[in-house]
């Protein structure tokens, strides 16, 4: 039975899982959850899939798992993929960057998305103090990442890992949210390399763009 992955094609978090699964050759069955209709907050979803009302969620037989990073680690261990690191040392470095990415990096792009796009859908103005704080945090983390990537092709070691995928996720929405990634040339070059050399990453970007731009257009929202 194929592993089920629940999510909305406009989600940068779903993109982390669908890309990693494609790279690892894991067969998945996608289950569409329309986040713009609030489907992840339906009682059945909260009860059976994720009480936090967030996607993606994975169902593999009796195993139900949410959080894209946890899902990707599960899948990588299941198939023995080096996306989780080729050596024990690499594995700890990959985990280090994945935890960092969740707490210190992605969250501020998500906050900006919620303010600049989520609130537009609800007819509310963005809160500039939140966006300003997010930009301060993004600039501090972006400078450290930019220095890290000055002489590296990947976040860890000399090959693609889940750390690259987790840290690249905010590039799913940056053209719409206008977070200041363009101030960091090594970061931008690394992201472009991923798009040029990892077909699943480029394909998932097209999917996110089509879904979000299509939904914005249908709602008559111009950014
Ligand atoms: N930390 C979670 C974040 C999940 C998340 O924020 N998912 C968003 C889509 S990108 C979502 O499902 N939002 C639905 C909602 O807030 O109602 C992960 O990495 O999986």
From TrEMBL:
<dbReference type="InterPro" id="IPR004045">
    <property type="entry name" value="Glutathione_S-Trfase_N"/>
</dbReference>
<dbReference type="InterPro" id="IPR036249">
    <property type="entry name" value="Thioredoxin-like_sf"/>
</dbReference>
<dbReference type="Pfam" id="PF00043">
    <property type="entry name" value="GST_C"/>
</dbReference>
<dbReference type="InterPro" id="IPR036282">
    <property type="entry name" value="Glutathione-S-Trfase_C_sf"/>
</dbReference>
<feature type="domain" description="GST N-terminal">
    <location>
        <begin position="1"/>
        <end position="83"/>
    </location>
</feature>
<feature type="domain" description="GST C-terminal">
    <location>
        <begin position="87"/>
        <end position="216"/>
    </location>
</feature>
<protein>
    <submittedName>
        <fullName>Glutathione S-transferase family protein</fullName>
    </submittedName>
</protein>
<dbReference type="InterPro" id="IPR040079">
    <property type="entry name" value="Glutathione_S-Trfase"/>
</dbReference>
<dbReference type="InterPro" id="IPR010987">
    <property type="entry name" value="Glutathione-S-Trfase_C-like"/>
</dbReference>
<dbReference type="Pfam" id="PF02798">
    <property type="entry name" value="GST_N"/>
</dbReference>
<comment type="similarity">
    <text>Belongs to the GST superfamily.</text>
</comment>
<dbReference type="InterPro" id="IPR004046">
    <property type="entry name" value="GST_C"/>
</dbReference>
């Amino acid at each position: 039975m194929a592993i089920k992955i629940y999510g909305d094609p406009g989600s940068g978090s779903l993109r982390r899982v669908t890309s990693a699964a494609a790279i690892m050759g894991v067969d998945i069955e996608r289950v569409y959850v329309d986040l713009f209709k609030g489907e992840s907050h339906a009682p059945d979803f909260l009860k059976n899939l994720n009480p936090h009302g967030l996607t993606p969620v994975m169902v593999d037989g009796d195993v139900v798992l949410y959080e894209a990073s946890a899902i990707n680690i599960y899948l990588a261990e299941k198939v023995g993929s080096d996306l989780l690191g080729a050596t024990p040392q690499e594995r700890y470095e990959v985990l280090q960057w994945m935890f960092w990415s969740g707490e210190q990096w992605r969250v501020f792009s998500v906050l900006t998305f919620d303010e600049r796009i989520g609130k537009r859908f609800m007819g509310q103005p963005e809160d500039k103090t939140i966006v300003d704080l997010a930009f301060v945090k993004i600039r501090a983390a972006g400078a450290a990442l930019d220095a890290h990537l000055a002489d590296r092709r990947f976040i860890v070691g000399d090959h693609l890992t889940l750390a690259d995928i987790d840290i690249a996720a905010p590039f799913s929405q940056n053209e719409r949210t206008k977070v200041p990634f363009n101030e960091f040339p090594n970061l931008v070059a690394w992201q472009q390399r991923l798009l040029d050399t990892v077909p699943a990453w480029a394909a998932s970007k097209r999917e996110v763009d089509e879904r979000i731009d299509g939904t914005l257009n249908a709602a008559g929202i111009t950014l």
